[in-house]
Amino acid sequence: MAEQFQLRLVDSFMLAPTVRHLSFERVDGQALAFVPGQFLQVHFHYDDGKATKRSYSVGTVGDGSNPVQRIEIAVSYVDGGAATALLGGLQHGDTIDASGPYGRFCLMDGDTNSRYILIATGTGVTPYRAMLPQIEALMASRGCRFVLLYGARNEGELLYGEEFEAFARAHEGFTFHPCLSRGARPHPRPHDRLGYVQDMLAELEPKPEGDIAYLCGNPNMVDAAFSALKEHGLAVQHIRREKYISSR
């Protein structure tokens, strides 16, 4: 059930040159109940007074069974963007207006597939970070396997990359493929791939009878990956999408 509330910034750090990780707590002291994969909306006004809002996936790591006190998001800075001016200038202790949670980009209880293909670019990887405890539980209870294809231009733009690397090392059923479109990192790792995420799908050999895919991030990537997965025979209901559109 969506609520309206104020958030107070309690911590932040730069994830990449143009991406900031922000941690909030509700001003009213209440915890936030959300399902990993859902998003919040931040409400503010343009300089002319017109009301507007922006959506951000909740990145707090949790299994969805208990509300959380820390509400974490990742914000990409857009040159000249109104949300960038607001969130880029926030100091610890500052407050913003928000509402949520919203959305259905979540792992579903009724699924019976054997593998999940998770695909992301940019801050589109944030919901998968939130899902990690659920992913761990599904690997244990159903024997599911997970593959995360994460597209970035270079190593410096792999948001939460070390967290996913560590999770993959600790869980045999989880594979993490950073897909770097502007060339290899100085010290390549065995699971790195070069190119765009949609071009890596053939290597995974998607199978309509066993795979469900999640696509989150740049709209062009989402559309290209959606088309590629359909060509591999996946049913539309087994390709779940969320597009991130940069707004000024």
Give the percentage of residues in beta strands: 25-35%
Total of helices: 6
Topology order in helix (H) and strand (E) letters: EEEEEHEEHHEHEEHEHE
Percent of residues in helices comes to 10-25%
Strand order of the largest sheet: 4-3-6-1-2-5
Kindly state the mean pLDDT as a whole number?
A: 94
> Could you give the distance between the termini?
28 Å
Largest sheet: 6 strands, antiparallel
Rg of Cα set: 18 Å
Q: How would you describe the shape?
A: globular
In total, the number of strands is: 12
Uncertain stretches of 5 or more adjacent residues: none
Structural class: alpha/beta
Cofactor: [2Fe-2S] cluster
Protein name: Ferredoxin--NADP reductase
Domain FAD-binding FR-type: 2-108
InterPro entries: Cbr1-like_FAD-bd_dom, FAD-bd_FR_type, Flavoprot_Pyr_Nucl_cyt_Rdtase, FNR_nucleotide-bd, MRET, OxRdtase_FAD/NAD-bd, Riboflavin_synthase-like_b-brl
Give an overview of the whole structure.
By secondary structure, the chain is an alpha/beta fold. The chain has six helices and twelve strands. The strands form two sheets. A six-stranded antiparallel beta sheet has the order 4-3-6-1-2-5, with helices on one face. The protein has a six-stranded parallel beta sheet with strand order 10-9-8-7-11-12, sandwiched between helices. β8, α4 and β9 form a beta-alpha-beta unit. The radius of gyration is 18 Å and the shape is globular. Its cofactor is [2Fe-2S] cluster. It comes from Luteibacter jiangsuensis. Pfam families: FAD_binding_6, NAD_binding_1. This is Ferredoxin--NADP reductase.
